[in-house]
Backbone:
């Protein structure tokens, strides 16, 4: 038990601040669409496929101003988001008129906050660090429950420590931790599996990671450059004709020279905000190459697709967003007070305590 306590304290002291920052940024991002300020952000989502096709054609027709991707408006955010290959971007209304532009993500708080929470501003390296932090968080939850069990008779529900002394903070930390443990488990498990896909085997069975990789892989690359004068509107119309009940979510130019234009859609039964229903078009001709219906994916893959909506509170409306906000704020409080007590409120050693008593 002493070893568990030592590991819990030292790991928390070393990584608690990172978990606190991830919890706070996550709590803010849950409500991102509500606090993102831009003209027409509150417009209702346009469902007319012809208007969407015309808007796409207008945006993508000019090679000089063509974005790398378009993210279409959703029910709670009424703007198109355009991203360019130089790191800049823009918001446009649903007829394609630009309402605001940026040359760097640092000009938009919702963008750099997202990059911090998902990548720590460090790409794949940041992903790994966040994944390890999530695993440490799971270690804290399980060891914390073990350590709390010894003191369960002194449990007292408090949002804030009774005093800012180390014993009061430690007691509050354990009691609050046991209350929010289910929420922390939800946030940490979903976050860890999203970063470390092999961990999906723990939730969906031993063969799940390979099954997920295979099911979500794009078609084989094509030796095709982006053609001139492509009929972008026809691609949108083709996608909507193939999946009439699906919501148009994004269009992306070829990545890593794979020669494929991708359109993602979201069918009604999908929780994932951008959906997994995808169509691929040849970059040189715009001809449909392949299509994937999310409704036909294996059960393990469908389960995996539920993780991000749960983690980011993209389902369940305001009630679930508040639940995940509570999870993030609890992680912030637990992590911050852990670091503070570990580094600045260390327990007084017995010899020093006796010396202080004699001096007094």
Residues:
């Amino acid at each position: 038990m002493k070893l568990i306590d030592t590991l819990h304290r030292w790991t928390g002291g070393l990584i608690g601040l990172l978990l606190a920052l991830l919890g706070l940024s996550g709590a803010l991002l849950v409500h991102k669409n509500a606090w993102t300020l831009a003209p027409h952000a509150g417009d209702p989502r346009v469902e007319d496929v012809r208007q969407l096709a015309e808007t796409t054609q207008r945006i993508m027709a000019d090679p000089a101003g063509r974005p790398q991707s378009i993210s279409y408006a959703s029910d709670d955010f009424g703007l198109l988001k355009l991203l360019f290959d130089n790191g800049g971007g823009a918001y446009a209304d649903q007829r394609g008129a630009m309402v605001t532009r940026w040359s760097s993500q640092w000009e938009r708080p919702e963008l750099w906050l997202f990059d911090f929470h998902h990548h720590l501003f460090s790409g794949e390296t940041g992903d790994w660090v966040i994944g390890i932090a999530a695993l440490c968080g799971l270690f804290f939850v399980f060891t914390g429950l073990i350590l709390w069990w010894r003191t369960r008779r002194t449990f007292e529900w408090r949002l804030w420590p009774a005093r800012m002394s180390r014993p009061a903070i430690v007691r509050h930390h354990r009691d609050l931790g046991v209350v929010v443990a289910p929420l922390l488990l939800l946030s940490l498990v979903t976050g860890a599996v999203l970063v470390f896909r092999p961990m999906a085997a723990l939730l969906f069975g031993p063969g799940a990671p390979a099954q997920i990789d295979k099911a979500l892989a794009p078609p084989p690359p094509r030796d095709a450059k982006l053609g001139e004068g492509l009929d972008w509107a026809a691609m949108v119309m083709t996608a909507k004709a193939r999946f009439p009940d699906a919501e148009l979510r994004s269009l992306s130019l070829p990545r890593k020279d794979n020669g494929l234009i991708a359109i993602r859609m979201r069918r009604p039964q999908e929780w994932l905000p951008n959906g997994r229903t995808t169509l691929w078009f040849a970059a040189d001709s715009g001809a449909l190459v392949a299509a994937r219906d999310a409704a036909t994916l294996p059960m393990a893959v469908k389960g995996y697709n539920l993780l991000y909506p749960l983690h980011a509170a993209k389902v369940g409306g305001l009630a679930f967003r508040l639940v995940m906000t509570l999870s993030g704020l609890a992680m912030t409080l637990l992590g911050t007070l852990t670091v503070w007590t570990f580094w600045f409120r260390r327990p007084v050693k017995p010899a020093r305590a006796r010396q202080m008593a004699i001096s007094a």
About this structure: Confidence is low (pLDDT under 50) at residues 356-360.
